[in-house]
Protein: L-ascorbate oxidase
Amino acid sequence: MLGLLFLLGFAAARQNTAVSHESFYPEHVLRVTAQNYSLACQDRYSVVINGSVPGPELRIPEGKVTWIRVYNDMSDANLTMHWHGLTAFTAPFSDGTPAASQWPIPPNHFFDYEIRPEIGYAGSYFYHSHVGFQAVSASGPLIVEDSQPLPYTYDEERLVYLSDFFNKTDKTIEDGLVADPFTWSGETNAVLVNGNGRLTTDDPGTCALASINVEPGKTYRLRFIASTALSFVSLAIDSHDVAIIEADGHYTKPLNTSYLQMSSGQRYSVLLKAKTESELEQLNKRHFYIQFSTLERPSVLTGFSLLEYPNNTVDARVVPSEPPLPVANTTNGWIDYQLQPLVPHEDFPTLEEVTRRVTIQMYQNVSQHTIWLQNEYPWTEHVPQSPYLIDIYEGKLDPDTSYQRAIANGDGFDKITKTFPAKIGEVLEIVWQNEGAVSNGGVDTHPLHAHGRHYFDIGGGDGVYNATENEERLKTAHPILRDTTVLYRYREKTTPRAPSGWRAWRLRVTDAGVWMIHCHVLQHMIMGMQTVWTFGDRDEILTQGGPVTGSYLTYGGSAYGNSTHSPIVQHYFD
Ligand SMILES: *[C@@H]1O[C@H](CO)[C@@H](O)[C@H](O)[C@H]1NC(C)=O
Ligand SMILES: *[C@@H]1O[C@H](CO)[C@@H](O)[C@H](O)[C@H]1NC(C)=O
Ligand SMILES: *[C@@H]1O[C@H](CO)[C@@H](O)[C@H](O)[C@H]1NC(C)=O
Ligand SMILES: *[C@@H]1O[C@H](CO)[C@@H](O)[C@H](O)[C@H]1NC(C)=O
Ligand SMILES: *[C@@H]1O[C@H](CO)[C@@H](O)[C@H](O)[C@H]1NC(C)=O
Ligand SMILES: *[C@@H]1O[C@H](CO)[C@@H](O)[C@H](O)[C@H]1NC(C)=O
Ligand SMILES: *[C@@H]1O[C@H](CO)[C@@H](O)[C@H](O)[C@H]1NC(C)=O
Ligand SMILES: *[C@@H]1O[C@H](CO)[C@@H](O)[C@H](O)[C@H]1NC(C)=O
Ligand SMILES: *[C@@H]1O[C@H](CO)[C@@H](O)[C@H](O)[C@H]1NC(C)=O
Ligand SMILES: *[C@@H]1O[C@H](CO)[C@@H](O)[C@H](O)[C@H]1NC(C)=O
Ligand SMILES: [Cu+2]
Structure:
């Protein structure tokens, strides 16, 4: 099995021919501007996609190539676009990570991204900028459509897209987070659903809540996408239970639940059976609040949107004076070891197959600057001088030398390149170990998101990871593939460096490339909570990527189009 996957990795190598995009029509076009934009009835200078927050919904086919042209119409800021959850299925420079896999798109330039989601990855995703704090507003839904018959039947689908509103600008927030003294962004001012929401101070309301319209008796697939900057939310729909059928782009066995708990970066599809006309008459209601509360923050923000049936007369500007549902608390380990893949995964790596365990200690370091460390180092997009993938192409970075250093270092981290290198064929167990801050003991909750192929989530717990104990729990579990799972904190404070929760993953190293793994809280990213992994040696990365012309290797090179020049683009998949 290992050998087979190994070969598959190489079978992905492509001709990679250079094409002039002079008369090329990409399937989708996105235009990104920075402008004053009104959210929650507040004007804020924001980076927006096609003039809206969220950006337009993109639907792309599973198993086929899609080209997406992204224009940076800003005059003073770089941009990238990341296809959250689809990394391993993008062409080599198409993952949209500025210091890892590509030079950012300079002001007034555009870039053609090439994506081909593999069969088995149909589901709910989103796209967002990976530069600074831009993704607070520069993001939008990305749906990978099934090429196979749907495993579940439903009448229609609805989107529930969550994002945060902060009244400070991106620049103020970014500057504050790296300043001495450190200045926090402040808490989210509003959690938005499909771009709609309001401040808690907006009462009586001037700003309408989001409305999800349903018809009696029908079955809906609700796609919940958490594109929040910070907020970890608990959500429930008054009088409606749902069944989870998809997590992060993979169908699951149905799991009934009365609430969802979602961190930044996660997606779930659920089936919702709408009330029948007679049930509505019995309940004497034609609208139901969708209630959400933020978790693990110093203050709880509770917000609403509406599930509306035809002929509802309640004004969407009115919020209930008292929350109709109990205000939720965190469920540590929510649905861990419970949610199962719809079709069993034959290739789940057993403990015996694991060739290396990498434990990453994560804690906050409070000194002049407040930063997040992974094995004593922070990483931000400003760490490398040039993107790692470019350096590998140019022969300036040798992943094999980094690998030797990382192994010699004992913890899997190469302090010179600030990367976690791995070899093709390794079976990794990655353990994220939460610890109390230096020097105040504070602990936080982190949604950990991996680029690259989705990993098997093998659970989480309090204290320190114990493989023997977890193996017992896995005996009755059926681990699922995910790209974002939560490292819980279990408590607000402990002693500095004391373990306070872990999350563990298993993955086979098959796809050569440069992949990021990071906390998806945008503030934490800016404070250093990111890691970069190189998979494979230089030959393997170049073989998988194919021959590349110089067009990608310089900032603003000819792979980047502008008003006078069409880009020269490598066609990787076709
Ligand atoms: C975004 O806007 C551009 C130009 O305004 C338009 O051509 C394109 O179709 C829009 N994209 C989507 C996905 O709606
Ligand atoms: C945005 O609004 C602010 C405050 O109202 C104003 O000072 C600024 O000029 C506006 N910027 C743009 C680009 O319209
Ligand atoms: C854009 O990225 C380039 C290359 O990393 C960098 O030199 C430049 O300072 C960036 N520009 C801005 C406005 O951040
Ligand atoms: C931003 O929100 C904070 C509450 O988080 C409030 O104190 C402040 O006045 C707001 N600022 C503006 C300009 O609205
Ligand atoms: C899930 O909910 C559905 C609809 O209410 C019900 O028919 C089914 O029995 C439930 N499944 C489980 C395992 O509880
Ligand atoms: C909604 O109201 C319209 C007009 O009053 C009426 O014709 C229709 O039957 C109502 N629909 C339902 C589902 O009650
Ligand atoms: C959440 O915790 C608080 C404080 O412990 C408690 O009062 C409240 O009832 C809890 N809420 C729920 C829904 O369990
Ligand atoms: C962590 O904080 C301590 C002081 O609390 C400081 O001496 C040390 O340099 C900091 N470490 C890093 C990597 O910033
Ligand atoms: C791990 O758990 C097993 C079984 O409970 C126990 O025997 C062992 O001592 C634990 N290992 C560590 C390092 O705590
Ligand atoms: C447009 O792109 C071409 C080719 O990469 C480059 O020579 C030219 O300087 C660019 N123009 C601007 C205004 O950046
Ligand atoms: Cu975090």
